[in-house]
Design goal:
By secondary structure, the chain is α+β, with helices and mostly antiparallel strands. The strands form five sheets. Strands 2-1-6-3-4-5 form a six-stranded mixed beta sheet. A four-stranded mixed beta sheet has the order 8-7-12-9, sandwiched between helices. Strands 13-14-15 form a three-stranded antiparallel beta sheet. Helix 11 packs parallel to helix 13, helix 12 packs parallel to helix 14 and helix 19 packs across helix 22. The longest helix is centred in the middle third of the chain and has 22 residues.
């Protein structure tokens, strides 16, 4: 087997044991790596209904056949588990030195089981694993924990860690690495915390197996230079991802005031030009050719690394337009180890619920200092923070008073920073995302607003969403690799099958990847159905408030407009028809068998009564 090491490292924290297992080439070719590997392992090894925060849940760290190889933006790792936030499969894509070091240690996958009796971290060095006390850094923020571990193991060691939010099982706690990198929005950090696992540290010394190492090295280095030159010519890294903020504001797609509004006259104060002008440093992932982490000094003087998602959700969505104050909220999220998108959404929902009489409290939109206090409380589940730590959907179920209608989430995961109350295709992308509302699944908004009828609900939009879900699940989440060269610079998709073939000796085309993407997405939805057997098509709806005429903007580009449920349902039918799913949104047995999932189809039928 080339391209993959073929090795799984299985660690049991309860027993303090580890062992190496092998996976087959058939398994590798069917699931590729990353998300594909993690999804299949969790489907096979978790019993339906397992407690996501119990010792029987499993934490997966998974790589693929080109992960860590010197080539454009290949420093990505998948962290996955059953999500405590959504109750189904959840994962995150994180840039980290773990990508390189784990491959050099001889592994493609780590499976972590059980629960440590006391706070620990694990140190993996080639074929050995040490279980070490984490008492000195338990309770510490991720910046201090990273620094402590780097002093012991070096700055190039692969380190994944959690902050107090993960330790206290905040349901949207993330996994952190390299100070500015984070992944696992559906609560993968909380799963680490539930296992008393503060960090994973990896160092390796072996060669990464390649079918054609000489050509791969030459091609990879050439393409690193080529994509870097494209980025320099385009000037993309000048503003990075936050360049989109001004465009979203102009196109009435900006999250403002819990997404009740879609543009704001003060948004320019947080845009890409302003963040670039305030820049004190720029950071990126391993093998990055287009660094997107623009760091600014926050209100307290910390170096806070920004991108569009955290600016959008912690800025205009909270009606905070002071760049330094917004950066402080971002730094707190990073240090405490929680998702900036979900934290911003939970706080904005809380302010909205207070405004509408669903609950009582002293938090108002625009109050940055109180927002900081609430973040510290929720990371440690103290006072009202215990409520905020569960996310907007669970909060709404507690509040009642129809507040669930304006909890801005799908399947329990809060929407990323794109207000799609009159962007039907992006609403469909969020609604049908099988892990909950995440922009990484199908970012159709620029295509829709530039190349399609904005208010249209046609089959073409359903087709485009599926096309993007196929590509992203199979290539960018399973190889895994960063999508920015393709999205932002137009780096040709055909490069990725070519990399895959050089690594593995296979002869794949883009069609092979899209077929695998369909297989992955069918099993993702089957996982959701197995955990939520009473599911129906409403699970694939965007937030209900988007269909309410009362929240239509009264001025601007989309004045008086909102999504229409009957038309959305027609578009959803197109989506199901193209995918071969039934009208409830569940893959049919015939479709699953066609995708090589006959055994999984039978298991789904037995556990969820699906025929």
């Amino acid at each position: 087997m080339k391209g993959w090491t073929g090795n799984i490292l299985r660690i049991n924290l309860s027993k303090r044991t580890f062992k190496t297992e092998r996976f087959s080439e058939d398994f590798a070719l069917k699931w590729i790596g990353g998300r594909g590997f993690a999804l299949k392992i969790l489907w096979d090894e978790l019993k339906p209904g397992v407690d996501a925060l119990g010792p029987d849940n499993k934490l997966i760290v998974a790589l693929g056949p080109i992960a860590g190889v010197p080539m454009p933006n290949s420093g990505k790792t998948i962290v996955a588990a059953k999500s405590p936030l959504t109750g189904t499969y959840g994962d995150g894509n994180i840039g980290t030195h773990v990508t390189i070091q784990l491959r050099k240690a001889g592994y493609d996958i780590i499976i972590i089981e059980g629960r440590s009796a006391d706070p620990e971290y694990v140190f993996i060095q080639d074929g050995d694993v040490s279980f070490l006390p984490a008492g000195e850094i338990w309770g510490k923020g991720t910046y201090e924990a990273q620094e402590w571990l780097e002093k012991k193991y070096g700055k190039t060691a692969g380190i994944l860690s959690i902050g107090p939010a993960g330790e206290n099982k905040v349901l949207y706690a993330v996994v952190r690495s390299m100070e500015g990198r984070a992944g696992g929005r559906p609560g993968i950090g909380a799963v680490m915390g539930s296992k008393n696992l503060k960090a994973i540290v990896v160092k390796g010394s072996q060669d990464i197996p390649m079918a054609d190492p000489k050509t791969m090295k030459e091609r990879g280095l050439d393409d690193l230079r080529a994509v870097g030159a494209m980025n320099k010519k385009a000037g993309w890294s000048v503003q990075g991802t936050n360049a989109v903020l001004a465009w979203c504001n102009e196109m009435a797609a900006l999250p403002v005031r819990n997404m009740r509004h879609s543009h704001h006259p003060d948004a320019w104060k947080l845009d890409g030009q302003r963040t670039s002008e305030a820049r004190v440093a720029t950071y990126g992932c391993p093998n990055c050719t287009m660094r997107c982490g623009i760091a600014v000094l926050d209100h307290e003087g910390h170096e806070s690394e920004l991108d569009y998602e955290n600016v959008g959700m912690l800025g205009p969505n909270l009606e905070i337009f002071d760049l330094k104050q917004m950066a402080s909220l971002n730094w707190l999220c990073d240090d405490l180890g929680m998702d900036t998108i979900s934290a911003g959404s939970a706080l904005s929902f809380y302010a909205d619920a207070i405004d509408h009489g669903a609950t009582q409290g002293d938090f108002k939109f625009g109050d940055a200092e109180r927002a900081k206090e609430l973040m510290r409380l929720l990371a440690r589940r103290r006072g009202v923070g215990d409520l905020l730590a569960d996310g907007s959907l669970k909060m709404a179920k507690r509040f009642g008073h129809n507040s669930e209608a304006y909890a801005i989430q799908c399947k329990g995961l809060d929407l990323s920073a794109y207000n799609c109350k009159y962007v039907p295709g992006q609403a469909l992308a969020f609604g049908t995302s099988a892990i909950g509302a995440h922009h990484k699944e199908a970012w159709i908004i620029t295509y829709e607003l530039k190349h399609s009828e904005r208010g249209g609900y046609g089959r073409d939009k359903a087709q485009k969403v599926i096309e993007l879900q196929r590509i992203r699940s199979s290539i960018f989440e399973s190889l895994p690799i960063c999508r920015f060269p393709w999205i932002e610079l137009g780096w040709d998709l055909k490069n990725y099958p070519e990399y895959f073939n050089l690594a593995t000796g296979a002869n794949w085309t883009l069609e092979d990847f899209t077929n695998t993407g369909d297989r992955i997405y069918a099993l993702l939805k089957a996982f959701w159905t197995r955990e939520h057997p009473d599911t129906d098509r409403t699970a694939d709806y965007p937030p209900r408030i988007y269909f309410d005429p009362a929240i239509a903007d009264q001025e601007g580009l989309i004045a008086g407009k909102h999504l229409e449920l009957d038309k959305y349902d027609v578009m959803l039918d197109h989506y199901y028809d193209i995918r071969g799913w039934d009208r409830r949104g569940i893959p049919t047995r015939r479709t699953m068998e066609r995708l090589g999932l006959a055994e999984e189809a039978e298991q789904l039928a037995q556990t969820a009564g699906v025929s």
